[in-house]
Amino acid sequence: MADSRPHPLAVLIVAYRSADKLERCIESVERYLPELEVHVWDNSGPESSDVRRLASRMTNAHWYLNGENIGFAAAVNNLAAVVSGRDFLLLNPDAELVGPLSLTRAAIGERGTAAAAPMIWADEGGRGPSKVLSRTHQPWDVAHRRRTVFNALGEMAVAAERLRGTWLSNLYWSQPGDVEGYLTGACLAIRREAWDSLGPFDCEFFLYGEEADWQTRAIAAGWRVRLENESGVRHSAQGTVAGDTMASTRSSDLVHASIALQIEYRYGVRTAELYIAGIYGIDGAKRALRRGDLNRSPSDVVIIVDGPKSLSASQLVSRASALAREGHAVTVVSLRRLGALPRELPPTIRLLRRPWWWPRTWPGDGSTALVTGTTKRERAAARLFRFRRRNLRIESVEPAGHPDGLNPEVTVPNLDLESI
């Protein structure tokens, strides 16, 4: 017989700067779920101290001030290990509870349910929660249909809300109960039994998509994913990077890379690469329609790496960081999954995933220098990248230990134009 009693919960929060939003988040937990332990992992990075200052004031929470940004998936996995044996509630630091989550907690107390979430609500000028966030958003938009290439591209071409319920959107037309795709992780309760059975989040996802991937595995294994009809959380998308142009750009690029990885897992790498090329084309068309031209990118150096595990990856990452420190605008293009690259590259460097056969960074890019390794894929991508770029300067980097290996600290002017 199903056990519908709420299980003991721990609240897990992965922080990224924005201590003011984090403080309101923790206060909302203390207001509506005062009996629960709160565990906070800080991914803000060593250069940011506002979360550490907050930790010295809010001593009731358990703080893990790691200092480095290890990624959302890795941070959640670490916190989940700390609260071993308990169910847990993932809560974004820019989210605030607006109720005690009675239905959500009861849902994961039922056998067979892997994850559950409440609906997202809006606070309209102190009048309390309303059922409609805007003309296009709905409170059940925390629930998503199964991800496909078509609805991923439809989302990019036209707002997903305008196409909801069609094959070009992964949003539901009406409020679902059981979810066929996934629930967003802004406020997500996870049953420990399912977590232990399925394993932790996949750390190949650095910031987005890890909860979608985990729930996809759960549904495939026969577990239920449920949206509960209750007031749950008030959440502002990208609240922790609002006002930070570099962080917002990195965040947006990681969203596309994450969707590509989800598609790769489900449909294969070639389909994922078609998605990446598709969003490039859609972005170019939208820019042309909006501005009348494609504009030129601010990047003056592009570094092509054949994935994070290629032989020359560490040298190319070192070169990218050195060039960025010298004041160059640098873009790193990975021809495969991103892996650990988001952890290794500072947000001042743009990081993109592109197929080798579509190596352009974004519409209208005006890069003047290219640095790449010497694998077949890197060389092929470099040849395509230099097409119609007569003044492009090129440098190749041999893998570490190669007799012709170049010093990673060599700067852009020392380019070997004949090496590609």
UniProtKB/TrEMBL annotation:
NAD keyword on record: no
InterPro entries in the cross-refs: Glyco_trans_2-like (IPR001173), Nucleotide-diphossugar_trans (IPR029044)
Pfam family, one: Glycos_transf_2
All residue ranges annotated as the Glycosyltransferase 2-like domain in the record: 11-96
Top-tier EC class: transferase
GO molecular function: glycosyltransferase activity
Key words of the record: Cell wall biogenesis/degradation, Glycosyltransferase, Transferase
EC number: 2.4.-.-
Record pathway: Cell wall biogenesis; cell wall polysaccharide biosynthesis
PANTHER family: GALACTOFURANOSYLTRANSFERASE GLFT2, RHAMNOSYLTRANSFERASE WBBL
Family stated for the protein in its record: Belongs to the glycosyltransferase 2 family.
Protein name listed in UniProt: Glycosyltransferase
